[in-house]
Amino acid sequence: MTCATSQAGLDRLHQAMAAQVANGALPGMVTLIAHGDDVHVDPIGALAFGSPDPMRRDTIFRITSMTKPILAAATMTLVEDGALALDEPIDRLAPELANRRVLKRVDGPLDETVPAGRPITVEDLLTFRMGYGMVFEPSFDPPYPINTAAKKLQLVMGPPDPRTPHPPDEWMRRFGTLPLMYQPGERWQYNAGALVLSVVAARAAGQSLGELFSTRVFEPLGMTDTGFWLPAERTARLPAHYMTNPATGKLELRTLSPPSEWSRPPVFPAGSAGLLSTVDDYLAFARLLLNNGVHEGGRLLSEQSVELMTTNHLTPEQRAGAGPVLGGRGWGFGMSVVTTPDEVSPVSGRYGWDGGYGTSWFNDPNRGLIAIAMTQTSDFLFNGGLAEFTRLAMQT
Length: 396
Description:
Blueprint (H helix, E strand, L loop, with lengths): L6 H16 L5 E8 L2 E8 L15 E4 L2 H15 L19 E3 L9 E3 L6 H5 L18 H8 L15 H8 L16 H14 L3 H13 L10 H4 L5 E5 L4 E5 L20 E3 L1 H12 L3 E2 L2 E2 L3 H7 L6 H5 L9 E2 L4 E2 L13 E5 L3 E6 L4 E6 L10 H9 L3
Antiparallel strand pairs: 1-2, 1-15, 3-8, 4-5, 6-7, 9-10, 11-12, 12-13, 13-14, 14-15
Helix pairs in contact: 1-12, 2-6, 2-7
């Protein structure tokens, strides 16, 4: 079902987001609301505080974890082609992770392990239940031996700042020296599954991940401004990245991901957080899912693949133990899924995901709605900005 766009709702959304810019919460942003062919794009503010360069409809953003849904879609094209199977162990394509050992307890010594009860499967990677990932509780990234060992191996697990210095095969070799934190299938843990899947999918395709994304997603959808890197003349106008320094409580410019970093191919194309994109390019991808895998009359994904991507696969216990990242939501393949009515919608089914630099996307299939917000201020995700955007976008 596609509902008509409410101009009053669009006006409320613009006023609220413009107020975010006016009060200094962020220098600028671009929002997009689409109901069917009715698309409204709203660039607000500037690329940086004090900059004369305005946000534009074609501004390119580091979309960080909004890369994950694209990785899931590319993987499902390989499943449909028979190059992968969801229930197959990854040992064939990732022998580095065969015969896993599992820590007796996540905070314990690395040599206190038990055998894995079963191999890691492709579906485990897509659902983030491979048995390894970021730890958020009792605190973010606690100094457990497993986390300390990963840092010594330079296994970058978080945002692309800095990028991992290791090419995929070397990254996988190093990762394979570590035990798992939990048994495969036991818990939902963020991010690591996407990094491993980046290698597995590329090996299954016999291409680099960038080539896989281009041939299976970007070229068919016309996503010409999306990639793991772009020419220097296009990345020169990347918005500045800001985030509050917890030590000072002040919003500060971050310099770990400068435009020059994005003007050359990465050593490891990471399907976890590695893409640049625009609101219109991401709209093309979002429409593919909202249209159940069809783009301009041609089928790129099966309806079953889209259903698997956008349906919750977690148990209630796994959702409860997922920590603050999911916030009680479910998880499909590479994206969250709202499984019960919430404060912004009386029905479930909304799905999408956010990026840690301040980007967000969701589809509401009940209303035929696509909503995208792109900033490069991380605080937008947790200072009330994103919650306000989601609430008002649902009212358009």
